[in-house]
Write a structure and sequence with these properties.
The strands form two sheets. A four-stranded antiparallel β-sheet has the order 1-4-7-2. It has a three-stranded antiparallel β-sheet with strand order 3-6-5, with no helix packed on it. It has 128 residues and is an alpha+beta fold. The protein has a single domain, classed as ADP-ribosylation fold. The mean pLDDT is 89. Helices cover 20% and strands 25% of the residues.
């Protein structure tokens, strides 16, 4: 785990930019992904952004966002180190250690960690 919080998803943000929830941006949410997979995503809020101290988990979510850019075939979004905007709440869908995933109304990009994360990096984990 890291001392930082990370978010993976939107492309081309820069330090100082805000990460906003799907209700404000109109992009597909993790709740939508869960429904498409036949899973119950009812506890996933679309008015919150999700952050984690696990850089690789955030990178995986960036890669999973590849469906937003179908012309680029399996190339997803970007990975950011962020600062959460309060209030910070536990992610009700998280079953790991406390603080392993949190939700908040928005976050501010502190640093771009990686751009354009390929879905293929997570093919074994995701059984692709």
């Amino acid at each position: 785990m890291s001392d930082f919080l990370f978010h993976g998803g939107a492309r081309d943000l820069n330090p100082g930019d805000s990460i906003l929830p799907p209700d404000r941006t109109g992009v597909e949410s993790v709740r939508d992904w869960a429904a498409d997979a036949g899973l119950d995503g009812s506890v996933i809020r679309t008015d919150r952004v999700f952050l984690t101290p696990h850089m690789e988990a955030a990178a995986m979510f960036a890669a999973l966002s590849a469906a937003r850019w179908p012309a680029e075939r399996g190339v997803g979004g970007d990975l950011y180190a962020v600062m959460a905007e309060p209030p910070i709440e536990p992610d009700p869908d998280w079953s790991g250690e406390p603080g392993g995933s949190v939700q908040c109304p928005s976050a501010v990009v502190l640093q771009v960690v990686r751009r354009r994360i390929a879905l293929a990096e997570f093919s074994e984990v995701l059984s692709l």
